[in-house]
Amino acid sequence: MLIKSLFIILLLLMVISLFRALPPILKGQSSLPLSYYFGRRLLIAVILFSLLIVALLTGVIQPNPTPYTL
């Protein structure tokens, strides 16, 4: 349950990061470069992906079975 909560928190952080980058993109002027917002989203995505891989390898979560296996 902790892993799923971390997934949800990281996905919410990614959505929040998208909305925080929206005003500087629309206005065209910002004190921070747009690469700052992109880097933050990229960092969250890397953390999320690595957490997913670790959870799959340790057996904490299991992927859905493929439909053609018996």
Describe this structure in words.
With 70 residues, the chain is mainly alpha-helical. The chain has helices at residues 2-27, 34-58. The two termini are 29 Å apart. The model has no long low-confidence stretch (mean pLDDT 89).
> Percent of residues in helical segments?
over 70%
Q: Tell me the fraction of residues in β-strands, as a range.
A: under 5%
Q: Calculate the terminal CA-CA distance, rounded to whole Å.
A: 29 Å
The SSE order reads: HH
Average residue-wise pLDDT: 89
What overall form do the CA principal axes indicate?
A: elongated
Major sheet attributes: none
Radius of gyration: 17 Å
Unreliable stretches (pLDDT < 50, length at least 5) are none
Which secondary-structure class do the elements indicate? mainly alpha
- Number of DSSP helical runs: 2
Number of strands: 0
Which key terms come to mind for this protein?
mainly alpha, 2 helices, 70 residues, elongated
Write a brief structural summary.
It is built from two helices and no strands.
